[in-house]
Design a protein that fits this description.
Distance between the termini: 41 Å
Strand order of the largest sheet: 1-2-3-4-5
Helix content: 25-40%
Number of domains: 1
Structural class: alpha/beta
Number of helices: 4
CATH class: Alpha Beta
Number of strands: 5
Order of helices and strands: EEHEHEHEH
CATH topology: Transcription Regulator spoIIAA
Radius of gyration: 13 Å
CATH superfamily: STAS domain
Shape: globular
Amino acid sequence: MPTEVKITSRVLITSCVIHMEGSIDGNNLDKLESVVEPLLKDPNNRIFIMDFKGLQFIDSRVVGYITFLYTTLNHSGRILALISPTEAVDDTLTLVGLKNLIPTFSSIDEAIKKLQ
């Protein structure tokens, strides 16, 4: 059964917010990549905020992509932050150690305020 995901993004001056709802796995990871890649190319996008509050599931390929994104941004002096991961997503991120690396906030406003 194919997994469903809705991904949107918006740019706020030097920050970009990527909203996700549903589930992301290897079958639909390309949808996330197609949203993120153009944002990565713009050096004015300094803070990448991934809004996970509507995301119910991620698999190991998505974890790998988040790790790639974190590393890529970190090497270029940019920041990745997470917003309100659901319990299942939070458990996965904690299990693989990403919660120790990537700052997590309860709201987009809080993330922007603390990271700018």
